[in-house]
Amino acid sequence: MRKLFLVNFLLLLILLSSSFAYAGEINLPQISSKAIEKDSSPLRISLNVFSVGYYYLNITISPTSTGTVDKTTPYWGENAYLLDTLVALTAIPGTGYIFVNWTGDLISSANPADVTMNTDKNITANFKIVQCSKKKPLISKIAPANGRSGITVEIKGRFFCSGGGMVLFGTVEAEIIEWSNTSITVVVPDIVVKKQFKTVLVKVKNANNKVSNTKPFKVLKGPVLFK
């Protein structure tokens, strides 16, 4: 355990003359302390020096440059945390990769995951390349087939791959909620509808940059309606 040394000034009394005195006090959180006092005329100083325990969290990406990890902001520097700090880790795969698991001082496939800093930690975030068919994605159905902007729809089909990608409603990109090789759940994006409805063509682009066939979707004006 490393120690970060801080100074707690309890009392600083400076006597400049018999007719003038100044007293100041600053209180800081104290974990362990050792009092130091020095008496001399005309200066008297009383202070506490205390230490705070902290540990290092080292994150490794494997293979290199296949993703990143977001983590709770360190207490000190880039990777030092106070004793018993609960650190949240979120693995973010790079394009064409998916997260596999955590190894080292954290054994888990959960994402995000938490780790308690009670010692120095060395953790590896493991990613793997998306194994995609060379075939183009195929959309077979969109359910529901119509609705207004903001509703959730499921796109069913094949060869979407498990590594994510892009869904376009016309030229507008949709927000992805879930993505698998045979099903994608998205939020219908904000599309201007001047009449009762506007028909747009939906298409999928997978992690291999393969583009699917298109399926029509009616973006409705007003309340959500289903066929």
H and E string = EEEEEEEEEEEEEEEEEEE
How many E strands?
A: 19
Major sheet characteristics: 7 strands, mixed
The helix count comes to: 0
Envelope shape: elongated
Q: Nearest-angstrom radius of gyration?
A: 30 Å
The overall number of domains is: 3
- Cα(first) to Cα(last) distance is 63 Å
Structural class: mainly beta
Output mean pLDDT: 80
Query: What is the CATH homology-level superfamily of the largest domain?
Result: Immunoglobulins
**Beta-strand share of residues:** over 45%
Low-pLDDT windows of residues: 5-38
Helical proportion, percent range: under 10%
InterPro entries: Bacterial_rp_domain, Ig-like_fold, Ig_E-set, IPT_dom
Pfam family, one: TIG
Domain Bacterial repeat: 58-129
Protein name: Bacterial repeat domain-containing protein
Short description:
This protein is mainly beta and 227 residues long. 0% of the residues lie in helices and 59% in strands.
Question: Mind explaining what this structure looks like?
Answer:
Residues 137-218 form the IPT/TIG domain. The chain is an all-beta fold. It has three domains: 2-53, no CATH class; 54-129; 138-220, Sandwich (Immunoglobulin-like), CATH 2.60.40. It has strands at 2-17, 20-24, 33-39, 43-62, 67-71, 80-82, 85-93, 97-104, 113-117, 121-129, 138-143, 146-147, 152-158, 165-169, 172-173, 175-179, 183-187, 197-206, 215-220. The relative contact order is 0.13.
